[in-house]
Amino acid sequence: MKILETKNVKKYYGNGDNCVKALDGVDLSVDKGELLAIVGTSGSGKSTLLHMLGGLDIPTEGSVMINGKELSKMKEEQLTIFRRRQIGFVFQNYNLVPMLNVYENIVLPLELDGNKPDRKYVHGIIDLLHLKGTETRFTNGLSGGQQQRVAIARALASKPAIILADEPTGNLDSKTSQEVLGLLKMSIKKFGQTLVMITHNNEIAQLADRIIRIEDGRICEG
Amino acid sequence: MKNKMIFLAAAICCIGYWSYLFLCFHNPVLTAVSVLVCLFLLWLLYLQMSRTERIVADFFEEINQNLDLLFNKSYESINNLNFLEETLMARINQKIVRIAEILAAERKKSAKEKMSLQSLISDISHQVKTPMTNLKMLHETIQHRDLPDAKRTELLKTMGSQLDKLDFLLTSMVKTSRLEAGLIQLKKEEKNLFNTLAAAVSGITVPADKKNIPIEVFCQDQCLLNHDPKWTAEALFNVMENAVKYSPQNSRIRVSVEKWEMYTKINISDQGRGIPEAHYGKIFQRFYREESSQAIEGIGIGLYLAREIIQKQNGYIMVQSVIGKGSTFSVFLPNAF
What subcellular compartments does it reside in (chain B) (predicted)? Predict the structure, then answer.
Protein backbone atom coordinates (compact mmCIF):
# COMPACT_ATOMS: atom_id res chain seq x y z
CA MET A 1 0.00 0.00 0.00
CA LYS A 2 1.44 3.32 -1.04
CA ILE A 3 1.57 6.04 1.57
CA LEU A 4 3.49 8.60 -0.39
CA GLU A 5 3.63 9.24 -4.09
CA THR A 6 5.12 11.97 -6.20
CA LYS A 7 4.38 12.42 -9.87
CA ASN A 8 6.77 14.32 -12.08
CA VAL A 9 7.67 16.82 -9.37
CA LYS A 10 9.67 19.78 -10.63
CA LYS A 11 11.03 22.71 -8.72
CA TYR A 12 12.66 25.56 -10.58
CA TYR A 13 14.14 28.60 -8.94
CA GLY A 14 14.50 31.80 -10.94
CA ASN A 15 13.69 31.97 -14.63
CA GLY A 16 15.28 32.41 -18.02
CA ASP A 17 19.05 32.13 -17.99
CA ASN A 18 19.18 32.07 -14.20
CA CYS A 19 16.80 29.14 -13.91
CA VAL A 20 18.05 26.55 -11.44
CA LYS A 21 16.44 23.16 -11.71
CA ALA A 22 16.51 21.85 -8.15
CA LEU A 23 14.16 19.02 -9.02
CA ASP A 24 13.58 17.94 -12.56
CA GLY A 25 10.79 15.40 -12.73
CA VAL A 26 10.87 13.09 -9.74
CA ASP A 27 8.60 10.06 -9.64
CA LEU A 28 8.76 8.30 -6.33
CA SER A 29 6.52 6.05 -4.33
CA VAL A 30 6.96 4.86 -0.79
CA ASP A 31 5.16 1.91 0.75
CA LYS A 32 3.73 1.91 4.21
CA GLY A 33 6.19 0.80 6.84
CA GLU A 34 9.14 1.23 4.53
CA LEU A 35 12.47 2.72 5.51
CA LEU A 36 13.69 4.63 2.51
CA ALA A 37 17.05 6.35 2.25
CA ILE A 38 17.64 9.09 -0.28
CA VAL A 39 21.33 9.58 -0.97
CA GLY A 40 23.07 12.11 -3.12
CA THR A 41 25.78 14.73 -3.07
CA SER A 42 25.06 18.19 -1.73
CA GLY A 43 23.19 20.30 -4.22
CA SER A 44 21.61 17.26 -5.85
CA GLY A 45 18.13 18.31 -4.75
CA LYS A 46 17.54 15.82 -1.98
CA SER A 47 16.62 18.37 0.68
CA THR A 48 14.31 20.15 -1.75
CA LEU A 49 12.61 16.83 -2.40
CA LEU A 50 12.12 16.22 1.31
CA HIS A 51 10.63 19.69 1.74
CA MET A 52 8.16 18.90 -1.04
CA LEU A 53 7.23 15.62 0.60
CA GLY A 54 6.54 17.37 3.88
CA GLY A 55 4.51 20.17 2.37
CA LEU A 56 7.08 22.72 3.49
CA ASP A 57 7.46 23.92 -0.07
CA ILE A 58 5.27 23.86 -3.16
CA PRO A 59 6.47 22.23 -6.40
CA THR A 60 6.57 24.27 -9.58
CA GLU A 61 4.95 21.39 -11.39
CA GLY A 62 3.70 17.91 -10.54
CA SER A 63 1.95 16.55 -7.50
CA VAL A 64 2.75 15.10 -4.10
CA MET A 65 0.18 12.75 -2.61
CA ILE A 66 0.20 11.51 0.94
CA ASN A 67 -2.37 8.86 1.75
CA GLY A 68 -4.21 9.75 -1.43
CA LYS A 69 -4.46 13.43 -0.50
CA GLU A 70 -2.81 15.95 -2.75
CA LEU A 71 -0.81 18.47 -0.79
CA SER A 72 -0.95 21.29 -3.35
CA LYS A 73 -4.77 21.27 -3.24
CA MET A 74 -4.89 21.94 0.49
CA LYS A 75 -5.45 25.32 2.03
CA GLU A 76 -2.65 26.79 4.10
CA GLU A 77 -4.50 26.10 7.35
CA GLN A 78 -5.30 22.51 6.39
CA LEU A 79 -1.69 21.97 5.40
CA THR A 80 -0.50 23.15 8.80
CA ILE A 81 -2.82 20.76 10.58
CA PHE A 82 -1.87 18.00 8.18
CA ARG A 83 1.82 18.44 8.91
CA ARG A 84 1.22 18.55 12.63
CA ARG A 85 -0.84 15.37 12.72
CA GLN A 86 0.56 13.24 9.90
CA ILE A 87 4.23 14.06 9.59
CA GLY A 88 7.10 14.02 12.03
CA PHE A 89 10.25 15.89 11.16
CA VAL A 90 13.80 15.22 12.30
CA PHE A 91 16.35 17.81 11.28
CA GLN A 92 20.12 17.81 11.13
CA ASN A 93 20.40 20.60 13.71
CA TYR A 94 17.75 19.07 16.04
CA ASN A 95 15.58 22.26 16.20
CA LEU A 96 14.72 21.80 19.86
CA VAL A 97 13.29 24.66 21.90
CA PRO A 98 15.99 25.77 24.37
CA MET A 99 13.53 27.27 26.88
CA LEU A 100 11.76 23.96 27.38
CA ASN A 101 13.02 20.85 29.11
CA VAL A 102 13.29 17.45 27.43
CA TYR A 103 9.80 16.24 28.32
CA GLU A 104 8.18 19.53 27.30
CA ASN A 105 10.02 19.45 23.99
CA ILE A 106 8.80 15.94 23.30
CA VAL A 107 5.14 16.70 23.98
CA LEU A 108 5.18 20.14 22.34
CA PRO A 109 3.60 19.09 19.03
CA LEU A 110 0.93 17.16 20.92
CA GLU A 111 0.03 20.12 23.07
CA LEU A 112 0.01 22.45 20.09
CA ASP A 113 -2.62 20.18 18.64
CA GLY A 114 -4.69 20.49 21.81
CA ASN A 115 -4.18 16.89 22.88
CA LYS A 116 -3.36 15.71 26.31
CA PRO A 117 -0.16 13.69 25.93
CA ASP A 118 -0.61 9.95 26.31
CA ARG A 119 1.82 9.69 29.24
CA LYS A 120 2.31 5.96 29.01
CA TYR A 121 3.13 6.09 25.34
CA VAL A 122 5.47 9.06 25.73
CA HIS A 123 7.33 7.38 28.57
CA GLY A 124 7.60 4.24 26.45
CA ILE A 125 9.35 6.31 23.80
CA ILE A 126 11.58 7.96 26.39
CA ASP A 127 12.64 4.55 27.70
CA LEU A 128 13.22 3.21 24.21
CA LEU A 129 15.43 6.12 23.22
CA HIS A 130 17.41 5.99 26.44
CA LEU A 131 16.37 9.40 27.64
CA LYS A 132 15.19 8.31 31.05
CA GLY A 133 16.54 10.61 33.74
CA THR A 134 16.97 13.53 31.38
CA GLU A 135 13.27 14.50 31.25
CA THR A 136 13.64 17.61 33.39
CA ARG A 137 16.93 18.79 31.95
CA PHE A 138 17.24 21.60 29.46
CA THR A 139 18.23 20.53 25.99
CA ASN A 140 21.31 22.69 25.54
CA GLY A 141 23.10 20.78 28.29
CA LEU A 142 22.75 17.50 26.41
CA SER A 143 25.19 15.88 23.99
CA GLY A 144 24.50 15.94 20.27
CA GLY A 145 23.40 12.33 20.26
CA GLN A 146 21.04 12.93 23.15
CA GLN A 147 19.57 16.02 21.53
CA GLN A 148 18.91 14.14 18.33
CA ARG A 149 17.25 11.38 20.33
CA VAL A 150 14.98 14.00 21.91
CA ALA A 151 14.13 15.22 18.40
CA ILE A 152 13.32 11.66 17.35
CA ALA A 153 11.14 11.20 20.44
CA ARG A 154 9.32 14.41 19.55
CA ALA A 155 8.73 13.13 16.02
CA LEU A 156 7.38 9.83 17.35
CA ALA A 157 5.21 11.28 20.13
CA SER A 158 2.38 12.53 17.96
CA LYS A 159 2.12 9.09 16.31
CA PRO A 160 2.53 10.46 12.78
CA ALA A 161 2.15 8.27 9.73
CA ILE A 162 5.41 9.40 8.16
CA ILE A 163 8.69 10.60 9.58
CA LEU A 164 10.86 12.72 7.34
CA ALA A 165 14.47 12.99 8.42
CA ASP A 166 16.90 15.41 6.82
CA GLU A 167 20.46 14.26 7.50
CA PRO A 168 19.49 13.05 10.98
CA THR A 169 23.07 12.13 11.77
CA GLY A 170 24.76 14.97 9.93
CA ASN A 171 26.05 16.59 13.10
CA LEU A 172 26.98 13.38 14.93
CA ASP A 173 30.20 11.39 14.96
CA SER A 174 30.13 8.01 13.27
CA LYS A 175 29.72 6.07 16.50
CA THR A 176 26.76 8.12 17.70
CA SER A 177 25.30 8.09 14.18
CA GLN A 178 25.19 4.33 14.17
CA GLU A 179 23.54 4.21 17.57
CA VAL A 180 20.93 6.87 16.77
CA LEU A 181 20.10 5.27 13.45
CA GLY A 182 19.76 1.84 15.04
CA LEU A 183 17.30 3.27 17.53
CA LEU A 184 15.41 5.21 14.87
CA LYS A 185 15.03 2.10 12.77
CA MET A 186 13.87 0.01 15.69
CA SER A 187 11.33 2.55 16.87
CA ILE A 188 9.71 3.11 13.50
CA LYS A 189 9.43 -0.66 13.04
CA LYS A 190 7.92 -0.94 16.49
CA PHE A 191 5.33 1.78 15.96
CA GLY A 192 4.60 0.80 12.34
CA GLN A 193 5.67 4.10 10.84
CA THR A 194 7.25 5.02 7.54
CA LEU A 195 10.60 6.76 7.40
CA VAL A 196 12.08 8.74 4.56
CA MET A 197 15.63 9.71 5.39
CA ILE A 198 18.13 11.85 3.57
CA THR A 199 21.80 11.09 4.00
CA HIS A 200 25.04 11.36 2.14
CA ASN A 201 26.54 8.60 4.24
CA ASN A 202 26.47 5.22 2.46
CA GLU A 203 27.33 3.40 5.63
CA ILE A 204 24.14 4.61 7.27
CA ALA A 205 22.03 4.10 4.19
CA GLN A 206 22.73 0.36 4.60
CA LEU A 207 20.15 0.22 7.35
CA ALA A 208 17.37 1.24 4.96
CA ASP A 209 15.02 -1.17 3.23
CA ARG A 210 15.57 0.66 -0.02
CA ILE A 211 18.06 3.23 -1.23
CA ILE A 212 17.49 5.72 -4.00
CA ARG A 213 20.15 7.96 -5.41
CA ILE A 214 19.40 11.45 -6.61
CA GLU A 215 21.58 13.47 -8.95
CA ASP A 216 20.92 16.83 -10.58
CA GLY A 217 17.31 16.74 -9.47
CA ARG A 218 16.58 13.30 -10.89
CA ILE A 219 16.42 9.84 -9.44
CA CYS A 220 19.20 7.92 -11.07
CA GLU A 221 18.81 4.50 -9.52
CA GLY A 222 16.62 2.55 -7.18
CA MET B 1 -33.12 12.93 31.71
CA LYS B 2 -31.08 15.46 33.62
CA ASN B 3 -32.24 18.23 31.28
CA LYS B 4 -35.88 17.30 31.86
CA MET B 5 -35.39 17.52 35.65
CA ILE B 6 -33.87 20.98 35.32
CA PHE B 7 -36.75 22.10 33.13
CA LEU B 8 -39.31 20.69 35.59
CA ALA B 9 -37.60 22.41 38.52
CA ALA B 10 -37.65 25.72 36.64
CA ALA B 11 -41.36 25.27 35.85
CA ILE B 12 -42.21 24.53 39.54
CA CYS B 13 -40.25 27.61 40.63
CA CYS B 14 -42.24 29.72 38.16
CA ILE B 15 -45.61 28.41 39.45
CA GLY B 16 -44.50 29.16 43.03
CA TYR B 17 -43.46 32.66 41.98
CA TRP B 18 -46.85 33.31 40.31
CA SER B 19 -48.89 32.17 43.32
CA TYR B 20 -46.66 34.27 45.62
CA LEU B 21 -47.28 37.35 43.42
CA PHE B 22 -51.02 36.68 43.22
CA LEU B 23 -51.48 36.03 46.94
CA CYS B 24 -49.34 38.97 48.14
CA PHE B 25 -50.35 41.74 45.72
CA HIS B 26 -53.79 40.64 44.44
CA ASN B 27 -52.86 42.35 41.21
CA PRO B 28 -54.02 40.34 38.17
CA VAL B 29 -52.22 42.58 35.62
CA LEU B 30 -48.82 42.22 37.32
CA THR B 31 -49.35 38.47 37.64
CA ALA B 32 -50.34 38.12 34.00
CA VAL B 33 -47.27 40.06 32.85
CA SER B 34 -44.93 37.99 35.03
CA VAL B 35 -46.59 34.77 33.82
CA LEU B 36 -45.96 35.82 30.25
CA VAL B 37 -42.34 36.76 30.97
CA CYS B 38 -41.75 33.48 32.80
CA LEU B 39 -43.33 31.44 30.02
CA PHE B 40 -41.09 33.24 27.50
CA LEU B 41 -38.00 32.48 29.58
CA LEU B 42 -39.04 28.85 29.98
CA TRP B 43 -39.51 28.59 26.23
CA LEU B 44 -36.01 29.98 25.66
CA LEU B 45 -34.56 27.52 28.15
CA TYR B 46 -36.35 24.68 26.38
CA LEU B 47 -35.03 25.77 23.00
CA GLN B 48 -31.49 26.07 24.28
CA MET B 49 -31.65 22.65 25.89
CA SER B 50 -33.01 20.90 22.86
CA ARG B 51 -30.37 22.55 20.72
CA THR B 52 -27.52 21.32 22.93
CA GLU B 53 -29.08 17.89 22.97
CA ARG B 54 -29.26 17.85 19.21
CA ILE B 55 -25.63 18.93 18.86
CA VAL B 56 -24.45 16.23 21.25
CA ALA B 57 -26.64 13.66 19.53
CA ASP B 58 -25.30 14.67 16.12
CA PHE B 59 -21.77 14.49 17.43
CA PHE B 60 -22.21 10.98 18.76
CA GLU B 61 -24.05 9.95 15.64
CA GLU B 62 -21.10 11.08 13.54
CA ILE B 63 -18.62 9.21 15.71
CA ASN B 64 -20.89 6.20 15.51
CA GLN B 65 -21.04 6.36 11.72
CA ASN B 66 -17.29 6.81 11.41
CA LEU B 67 -16.67 3.88 13.72
CA ASP B 68 -19.07 1.87 11.56
CA LEU B 69 -16.83 2.63 8.62
CA LEU B 70 -13.94 1.18 10.59
CA PHE B 71 -16.08 -1.81 11.51
CA ASN B 72 -17.02 -2.41 7.87
CA LYS B 73 -13.40 -1.94 6.82
CA SER B 74 -14.34 0.64 4.20
CA TYR B 75 -10.93 2.21 4.22
CA GLU B 76 -11.67 4.32 1.17
CA SER B 77 -14.35 6.34 2.93
CA ILE B 78 -12.29 6.54 6.10
CA ASN B 79 -9.55 8.21 4.15
CA ASN B 80 -12.07 10.77 2.96
CA LEU B 81 -13.07 11.74 6.50
CA ASN B 82 -12.34 15.31 7.30
CA PHE B 83 -9.50 15.48 9.76
CA LEU B 84 -7.89 18.72 8.81
CA GLU B 85 -9.79 21.11 11.07
CA GLU B 86 -9.23 22.49 14.51
CA THR B 87 -12.32 20.74 15.88
CA LEU B 88 -12.65 17.89 18.33
CA MET B 89 -14.42 15.84 15.65
CA ALA B 90 -11.46 16.26 13.30
CA ARG B 91 -9.13 15.06 16.03
CA ILE B 92 -11.24 12.00 16.63
CA ASN B 93 -11.41 11.38 12.89
CA GLN B 94 -7.64 11.67 12.72
CA LYS B 95 -7.35 8.87 15.25
CA ILE B 96 -9.84 6.74 13.37
CA VAL B 97 -7.81 7.21 10.21
CA ARG B 98 -4.62 6.16 12.01
CA ILE B 99 -6.30 3.08 13.49
CA ALA B 100 -7.50 2.11 10.04
CA GLU B 101 -3.97 2.52 8.71
CA ILE B 102 -2.49 0.41 11.47
CA LEU B 103 -5.06 -2.31 10.94
CA ALA B 104 -4.36 -2.32 7.22
CA ALA B 105 -0.61 -2.44 7.87
CA GLU B 106 -1.00 -5.38 10.21
CA ARG B 107 -3.10 -7.26 7.71
CA LYS B 108 -0.51 -6.62 5.06
CA LYS B 109 2.26 -7.75 7.36
CA SER B 110 0.64 -11.10 8.04
CA ALA B 111 -0.01 -11.57 4.32
CA LYS B 112 3.63 -10.80 3.68
CA GLU B 113 4.75 -13.29 6.30
CA LYS B 114 2.62 -15.92 4.64
CA MET B 115 4.18 -15.07 1.28
CA SER B 116 7.69 -15.29 2.66
CA LEU B 117 6.90 -18.68 4.15
CA GLN B 118 5.60 -19.83 0.77
CA SER B 119 8.69 -18.58 -1.00
CA LEU B 120 10.81 -20.30 1.62
CA ILE B 121 9.09 -23.59 0.87
CA SER B 122 9.59 -23.20 -2.86
CA ASP B 123 13.23 -22.22 -2.27
CA ILE B 124 13.74 -25.32 -0.16
CA SER B 125 12.32 -27.67 -2.76
CA HIS B 126 14.41 -25.98 -5.43
CA GLN B 127 17.64 -26.19 -3.43
CA VAL B 128 17.12 -29.79 -2.43
CA LYS B 129 16.52 -30.92 -5.99
CA THR B 130 20.12 -30.79 -7.22
CA PRO B 131 21.78 -32.96 -4.56
CA MET B 132 18.76 -35.27 -4.69
CA THR B 133 19.10 -35.82 -8.45
CA ASN B 134 22.85 -36.33 -8.08
CA LEU B 135 22.32 -38.87 -5.36
CA LYS B 136 19.76 -40.79 -7.44
CA MET B 137 22.10 -40.93 -10.41
CA LEU B 138 25.03 -42.05 -8.33
CA HIS B 139 22.93 -44.67 -6.64
CA GLU B 140 21.72 -46.03 -9.95
CA THR B 141 25.21 -46.15 -11.38
CA ILE B 142 26.54 -48.05 -8.42
CA GLN B 143 23.65 -50.50 -8.41
CA HIS B 144 23.33 -51.43 -12.04
CA ARG B 145 26.76 -51.54 -13.50
CA ASP B 146 29.78 -53.63 -13.06
CA LEU B 147 32.31 -51.21 -11.78
CA PRO B 148 35.93 -51.57 -10.81
CA ASP B 149 36.42 -51.23 -7.07
CA ALA B 150 38.42 -48.01 -7.39
CA LYS B 151 35.65 -46.36 -9.40
CA ARG B 152 33.02 -47.59 -6.99
CA THR B 153 34.87 -46.13 -4.01
CA GLU B 154 35.19 -42.85 -5.82
CA LEU B 155 31.47 -42.76 -6.57
CA LEU B 156 30.65 -43.61 -2.99
CA LYS B 157 32.86 -40.75 -1.87
CA THR B 158 31.01 -38.35 -4.16
CA MET B 159 27.76 -39.72 -2.80
CA GLY B 160 29.01 -39.02 0.70
CA SER B 161 29.78 -35.41 -0.13
CA GLN B 162 26.35 -34.99 -1.71
CA LEU B 163 24.79 -36.43 1.42
CA ASP B 164 26.79 -33.97 3.50
CA LYS B 165 25.51 -31.16 1.36
CA LEU B 166 21.94 -32.34 1.71
CA ASP B 167 22.37 -32.69 5.44
CA PHE B 168 23.81 -29.19 5.74
CA LEU B 169 21.05 -27.81 3.54
CA LEU B 170 18.31 -29.41 5.56
CA THR B 171 19.75 -28.34 8.91
CA SER B 172 19.94 -24.74 7.80
CA MET B 173 16.49 -24.94 6.25
CA VAL B 174 14.98 -26.26 9.43
CA LYS B 175 16.63 -23.49 11.41
CA THR B 176 15.48 -20.78 9.01
CA SER B 177 11.96 -22.03 8.67
CA ARG B 178 11.58 -22.36 12.40
CA LEU B 179 12.89 -18.86 12.87
CA GLU B 180 10.66 -17.48 10.12
CA ALA B 181 7.54 -19.20 11.26
CA GLY B 182 8.06 -17.71 14.67
CA LEU B 183 8.40 -21.14 16.26
CA ILE B 184 11.57 -20.06 17.96
CA GLN B 185 11.17 -17.45 20.59
CA LEU B 186 14.45 -15.84 21.40
CA LYS B 187 14.91 -15.65 25.12
CA LYS B 188 16.99 -12.72 26.24
CA GLU B 189 18.90 -13.19 29.45
CA GLU B 190 21.58 -11.25 31.24
CA LYS B 191 24.53 -13.47 30.27
CA ASN B 192 28.23 -13.10 29.76
CA LEU B 193 28.92 -12.25 26.12
CA PHE B 194 32.42 -13.70 26.49
CA ASN B 195 31.00 -17.22 26.80
CA THR B 196 28.76 -16.69 23.79
CA LEU B 197 31.74 -15.55 21.74
CA ALA B 198 33.77 -18.51 22.94
CA ALA B 199 31.00 -20.88 21.85
CA ALA B 200 30.91 -19.26 18.41
CA VAL B 201 34.69 -19.30 18.00
CA SER B 202 35.03 -22.92 19.08
CA GLY B 203 32.82 -23.89 16.12
CA ILE B 204 35.28 -22.57 13.54
CA THR B 205 38.67 -23.37 15.06
CA VAL B 206 39.07 -26.55 12.99
CA PRO B 207 38.45 -25.00 9.53
CA ALA B 208 40.46 -21.95 10.59
CA ASP B 209 43.40 -24.12 11.67
CA LYS B 210 43.27 -25.93 8.35
CA LYS B 211 43.82 -22.63 6.54
CA ASN B 212 46.24 -21.47 9.20
CA ILE B 213 44.10 -18.48 10.13
CA PRO B 214 44.55 -17.35 13.72
CA ILE B 215 41.50 -15.83 15.39
CA GLU B 216 42.20 -13.02 17.81
CA VAL B 217 39.45 -12.17 20.25
CA PHE B 218 39.42 -8.92 22.21
CA CYS B 219 36.71 -9.06 24.85
CA GLN B 220 36.60 -8.48 28.57
CA ASP B 221 36.24 -11.63 30.68
CA GLN B 222 33.11 -10.18 32.19
CA CYS B 223 30.84 -8.56 29.66
CA LEU B 224 27.26 -8.94 30.81
CA LEU B 225 24.72 -8.32 28.09
CA ASN B 226 21.04 -8.97 27.65
CA HIS B 227 20.93 -11.49 24.79
CA ASP B 228 19.96 -15.00 23.78
CA PRO B 229 23.26 -16.89 24.19
CA LYS B 230 22.45 -19.88 22.02
CA TRP B 231 21.08 -18.07 18.99
CA THR B 232 23.49 -15.17 19.21
CA ALA B 233 26.34 -17.68 19.16
CA GLU B 234 24.75 -19.20 16.07
CA ALA B 235 24.59 -15.78 14.37
CA LEU B 236 28.19 -14.90 15.28
CA PHE B 237 29.32 -18.35 14.18
CA ASN B 238 27.71 -17.79 10.78
CA VAL B 239 29.52 -14.49 10.30
CA MET B 240 32.86 -15.99 11.42
CA GLU B 241 32.39 -19.06 9.25
CA ASN B 242 32.06 -16.78 6.24
CA ALA B 243 35.15 -14.89 7.31
CA VAL B 244 37.14 -18.13 7.32
CA LYS B 245 35.59 -19.37 4.11
CA TYR B 246 36.35 -16.27 2.06
CA SER B 247 39.81 -15.54 3.45
CA PRO B 248 43.11 -16.72 1.98
CA GLN B 249 45.55 -19.02 3.78
CA ASN B 250 47.68 -17.46 6.53
CA SER B 251 45.50 -14.38 6.95
CA ARG B 252 44.03 -13.40 10.29
CA ILE B 253 40.60 -12.76 11.78
CA ARG B 254 40.03 -10.23 14.51
CA VAL B 255 37.01 -10.22 16.77
CA SER B 256 36.56 -7.27 19.11
CA VAL B 257 33.87 -6.15 21.50
CA GLU B 258 33.19 -2.53 22.40
CA LYS B 259 30.55 -1.38 24.83
CA TRP B 260 28.88 1.79 23.61
CA GLU B 261 26.31 3.97 25.27
CA MET B 262 23.29 2.08 23.99
CA TYR B 263 24.62 -0.80 21.95
CA THR B 264 27.40 -3.31 22.34
CA LYS B 265 29.29 -3.59 19.09
CA ILE B 266 30.95 -6.82 18.04
CA ASN B 267 33.35 -6.37 15.13
CA ILE B 268 34.46 -9.33 13.07
CA SER B 269 37.21 -8.34 10.64
CA ASP B 270 38.84 -10.56 8.07
CA GLN B 271 41.46 -10.09 5.37
CA GLY B 272 39.42 -11.77 2.71
CA ARG B 273 38.35 -10.81 -0.74
CA GLY B 274 35.98 -8.03 0.28
CA ILE B 275 32.48 -7.14 -0.89
CA PRO B 276 31.63 -4.44 -3.43
CA GLU B 277 29.71 -1.58 -1.85
CA ALA B 278 26.73 -2.02 -4.14
CA HIS B 279 26.19 -5.50 -2.71
CA TYR B 280 26.18 -4.54 0.98
CA GLY B 281 22.41 -4.94 1.17
CA LYS B 282 22.22 -8.02 -1.04
CA ILE B 283 24.57 -10.28 0.88
CA PHE B 284 22.03 -10.55 3.68
CA GLN B 285 19.32 -11.81 1.36
CA ARG B 286 18.35 -15.44 1.47
CA PHE B 287 20.21 -17.60 -1.08
CA TYR B 288 22.21 -14.66 -2.42
CA ARG B 289 25.74 -15.56 -3.49
CA GLU B 290 28.38 -13.34 -4.96
CA GLU B 291 29.12 -14.10 -8.61
CA SER B 292 32.80 -14.34 -7.85
CA SER B 293 32.38 -16.87 -5.06
CA GLN B 294 30.36 -19.54 -6.87
CA ALA B 295 33.37 -21.88 -6.62
CA ILE B 296 33.25 -21.86 -2.83
CA GLU B 297 30.77 -24.18 -1.23
CA GLY B 298 27.75 -22.58 0.37
CA ILE B 299 24.10 -21.85 -0.22
CA GLY B 300 23.79 -18.28 0.91
CA ILE B 301 21.88 -18.66 4.10
CA GLY B 302 24.40 -17.88 6.84
CA LEU B 303 24.28 -14.10 6.79
CA TYR B 304 20.54 -14.09 6.26
CA LEU B 305 20.05 -16.22 9.34
CA ALA B 306 22.51 -14.11 11.31
CA ARG B 307 20.66 -10.92 10.48
CA GLU B 308 17.30 -12.44 11.37
CA ILE B 309 18.61 -13.55 14.75
CA ILE B 310 20.18 -10.18 15.53
CA GLN B 311 17.13 -8.23 14.38
CA LYS B 312 14.86 -10.32 16.51
CA GLN B 313 16.87 -9.09 19.47
CA ASN B 314 16.40 -5.44 18.40
CA GLY B 315 19.94 -5.29 17.09
CA TYR B 316 21.35 -4.81 13.64
CA ILE B 317 24.28 -5.78 11.43
CA MET B 318 26.37 -3.54 9.25
CA VAL B 319 29.21 -4.26 6.90
CA GLN B 320 32.17 -2.27 5.68
CA SER B 321 34.58 -3.61 3.15
CA VAL B 322 37.51 -2.82 0.93
CA ILE B 323 37.89 -5.03 -2.13
CA GLY B 324 40.93 -7.24 -1.85
CA LYS B 325 41.73 -6.07 1.67
CA GLY B 326 38.96 -7.54 3.77
CA SER B 327 35.59 -6.91 5.35
CA THR B 328 34.37 -5.94 8.77
CA PHE B 329 30.98 -7.08 9.95
CA SER B 330 29.63 -5.15 12.91
CA VAL B 331 26.95 -6.76 15.04
CA PHE B 332 25.09 -4.34 17.30
CA LEU B 333 23.18 -5.66 20.28
CA PRO B 334 21.22 -3.31 22.54
CA ASN B 335 22.54 -3.04 26.08
CA ALA B 336 19.26 -2.67 27.85
CA PHE B 337 16.16 -3.45 25.80
Answer: Membrane
Q: In this structure, what CATH number is given to the domain that contains residue B320?
A: 3.30.565.10
Q: Are A4 and A65 in contact (CB under 8 A)?
A: yes
Residue B90 CA from chain centroid, whole number: 31
Backbone angles phi, psi at B41, to 5 degrees: -65, -40
Q: What is the CATH number of the domain that holds A179?
A: 3.40.50.300
What residues make up the domain containing A59? Answer: 2-95+160-221
User: Which residues is B253 bridged to in the sheet?
Assistant: B215
- Contact flag A203-B91 (C-beta cutoff 8 Å): no
CA dist A119 and A117 (Å) reads 6
> What is the value of ipTM here, to two decimals?
0.75
Instruction: Sort out which chain A residues have CB atoms less than 8 A from B108's CB and list them.
Output: 1, 32-33
Q: What is the pLDDT of residues A35-64, one digit of tens each?
A: 999 988 888 888 888 888 988 888 888 999
CB atoms B316 and A185 under 8 Å: yes
Q: Where are the beta strands (DSSP E) in B212-305?
A: 215-218, 224-227, 253-259, 263-269
What is the C-alpha to C-alpha distance for residues A79 and B79, in angstroms, rounded to an integer? 16
